[in-house]
Amino acid sequence: MRVSRHGRPFSGLRRLIAVGTAAVAVLAGGLVATAQADDGGSEKFLPPKDSKVVSSKEVSPRIIGGTNTSISSAPWMVQLLFEFDNDGYFYFTCGGTLVAPNKVLTAAHCVTDEYGNALDMVGRGMIMANTAKLAGGPNDEGTVVGISRSYYAGSYNADTIDNDVALLTLSKPLTATPAQPASYGDTARYAAGTTATTYGWGMTGSDPDYDTLADTLQRVTQPLRSDAECGENLDTAVGIPGMYKPGHMICAGNGGTGDNSTGQATCPGDSGSPMMVSGRIIGVTSWGVATQSELCNFGGTYDVYTKVSTYMAALQPRIDDTSFSRDHRADPFARTTTGSTGYTFTSSGEKLTRTAFAGSYSAYNYLVQTDLNRDGYEDLVAREASTGDVYWLHRSVSSATYVKTKMFSNWKTVRAIVAPGDVNGDGKGDILSVTSAGTLTVHPSYGNGKFNTPVEVGTGYQAYNQIRGHGDYTNDGKADLLVRRGGTNDLYLAKGTGKSTAPFEAPVVVRADWSAYNLIVTPGDVNGDGKADVLVRTPGGSLSLLKGTGKATSEIFAAPVSLGTGWQSYYTIA
Q1: Distance CA 551, CA 473 (A)
Q2: Is the pTM of this model over 0.85?
Q3: Distance from the CA of 120 to the CA of which of 142, 433, 457, 486 falls in 20 to 30 A?
Q4: Which residue has better confidence, 296 or 526?
Q5: Measured between alpha carbons, how far is 401 from 512 in angstroms, rounded to an integer?
Q6: Can you say how many angstroms the Cα of residue 536 is from the centroid of all Cα atoms in its chain?
Q7: How far is residue 96's CA from residue 163's CA, in Å, rounded to a whole number?
Q8: In 528-561, which positions are buried (b, 16+ CB within 10 angstroms) versus exposed (e)?
Q9: Phi/psi of residue 314, each to 5°?
Q10: Would you say 54 and 23 are in contact if contact means Cβ atoms under 8 Å apart?
């Protein structure tokens, strides 16, 4: 008995390619050059005339116990393609889920080899979206886009398939509707007996010598099982105590039947694809029990998925990037005191390098950076001094230029504008405002510069002389606020709750007397470790980085790291 990663069996990468993905191998020829041009821009998937498409034999139009599904009912489904031999042939390897316009959630074993070494997803990987048809079929369609970053936790264990989750950053955003992962701490969606739906293009049967991948996207429903059931079932079947890891994994199914006509199971090729409950991703297809002759649907055993909610504290800051340079580190924006020229400062972890940013910002008296539509291109929220109108300065969908969209009118009396991220758990970055009377209001964002009805969620914020926040400071997957109280200048933490009506807990002191700083800046994760950081400036112009620790105590930040002097010449830093 053995364990099969449901993207490829333990017998090696080539086994599944020979079994299934050889049927969808595409010699991309000109497609590769086209797709990788202009930072891997997305192109319509139309193989050039000299492409070689390997035809597959007729297969059943259903996965084991599943049904055909249209892309309109699962617009967030994507396919991972990989070029194994530098020969122009791209193979389907796994499924994935679009969780932001430029982010794909998948399994760690989909982006690593069988030993856990990273595959070159940036140089040799692609994503295909906007189609329910498997790549390489007789009627190719869909949109291809390159990959600019590949992340999986260093704690991923290829031998035990533990911590099996990964996040890919696309070179350009897609227009398909993303799906929202289950939030950190979500328990309701994981209750035993809950019916969950899994999607994928995996094998249509369990026989490695006959069955092939589904040519159309499939879906299958399965009941969730308790951790106790999963552990007893899977540890016994595999013969390895502790192979199933509660908290990191979930399992589902009615038990394999060993018969394709009666079973309901995921199979190799389904890896990385989502398991959904109530419209949210609760799991990523990971592994199952297999033999040499049966790669899935093995008698009496359940299918295993990565428990998504467990990993959201690490994934969320990487989904909600705040980087002008489009790497994994947050880059602050600043404008000069004279001329009001705007600059971005590219972070390398413990150093900031200034880069010119086109245009003057003299018309604005308040600037906040964010990625409001989460397309991977950083935006600015800017208040016009003369009118108090607030604008969203963002990259155009059709070009590399920035456009200006009016969001709010006459905010002259608003004393603070904050873009902390997603405060109500709907997957979209929100805006906060604080009035001169100290009322804190959430403006729930639709992610396109428009907002739902504002909700007043707190009072007394006039007591704070600085109100900042972008990201999760407590490592619980929820956006927090940092506020400094006037008079004492103590720094307070207002922990996020993820609840729309009361998104923050009462502020608590985490640092005493921050009077040494005349500016607190919260650009996000500056050093790229997945935790939100803070920049602080002294009246003399010294700027320091305080790395976040994820602790909601006085140890919330590590010791200061100097980022240099001369920062008093900047009127504002966002």
Answers
A1: 7
A2: yes
A3: 142
A4: 526
A5: 43
A6: 28
A7: 16
A8: bbbbbbbbbbeeeebbbbbbbbbebeeebbeeeb
A9: -85, -35
A10: yes
Tokens of 450: 């428009």
Tokens of 457: 């969620």
DSSP-based three-state secondary structure for 35:
helix
- Within 8 A by CB and 6+ apart from 33, the residues are none
Q: For residue 156, give the nearest of 102, 186, 114 by alpha carbon.
A: 114
Mean pLDDT of 488-516: 94
Contact 524, 371 (CB under 8 A): no
**HSE-up of residue 81 (Cα within 13 Å, Cβ side):** 28
Span 236-294, pLDDT tens digits: 998 999 999 999 999 999 988 888 778 888 888 999 999 999 999 999 999 998 887 77
Question: Which three-class secondary structure state does DSSP give residue 49?
Answer: coil
Residue 562's Cβ-count burial label (10 Å; 0-12, 13-18, 19+) is exposed
Q: Are 361 and 367 in contact (CB under 8 A)?
A: yes
**Calpha distance 550→472 (Å, rounded):** 8
Give me the phi and psi of 260, to 5 degrees please: -65, -25
Going by their DSSP bridges, the two strands 280-290 and 180-181 should be labelled as parallel
> Among all residues, which ones are annotated catalytic?
109, 164, 271
40: alpha, beta or left? (left if phi > 0; alpha if psi -120 to 50): left
The tokens describing 133, both together, are: 């048809």
Both tokens of 411, joined, read 């905010």
